[in-house]
Amino acid sequence: MIQKRLDLLREALPYIQKFKGKTFVVKFSGKVTEDKENLASLAEELALLHQVGIKICVMHGGGKQLSELAQKLGVTQTVIDGRRVTNDETLELAKMIFAGKINTEILAALRQRGTTAVGLSGIDGNIVHAEKRPPKAIKNKATGEMETVDFGNVGDVLQINAGLLQLLLENDYLPVVSSLGADDDGRIFNINADTIASEIAAQLKAEKLILLSDVNGFYLEADKPETKISHLTIAEAEDLITDGKATGGMIPKLQSIISLINRGVKSAHIISGTKRNALLSEVFTDEGEGTMISKK
Questions:
Q1: Full-prediction pTM beyond 0.70?
Q2: Residues contacting 18, CB < 8 A, separation 6+
Q3: Which residue numbers in the chain have pLDDT < 50?
């Protein structure tokens, strides 16, 4: 057992040397943060990455916790094609959950591991400049007819100002950013956390974007672990879409990642956010853990 652990340290050494001083953007889903033991375990893994000289920026949403709070308070939620309509009441709850509860809990877990983290929203330092998402024509699955949907206080990213994040990273802080943004008039928007994480990764010229997900990578057949793809080049990812092997929500996620890598991010990773040591395994071992997508 001791020999195996020492071998793992030897395997990790070249990766530690390779990534020291590089920037990773790590995105948490709401499910990842809801369990305190799981969050504590993740904080330990992030602390280790930070300790060996990797610059970490954490991005988080919290849709699950937002839905739970809305249900408790009797605030009706409307979700269309997986996208939440954010009315004024829901936006107030989003501010409480994203910039408040979840952000603070991540900071506390990191502090327990001795990591100097700083909690932010996309509004701090004008990190996320956004605009209101315009109404969209969407097919009503029940009637088959097209309907115009106004998503309310949902925003689309116009620009990322990474200056504050760069300042913090250069001074050995670990920023933790929640998925809110604002326009020039100070209007606040709920914004997709994956989108913000991708845009921040591009602006920071990150080495990696790591998406901590409910699943441990991309599967050619849902719920069949043996069909998991460990590594894809962007050319292979494009082929999966063209050949029809990529289906459902896998298609837009692959398209987004392909675009991101073409903009300079070295690789993107999809791994489980609830499996112990998945993050360390993905970064520091030859085999990895989930799915890695890179240029070559």
A1: yes
A2: none
A3: none
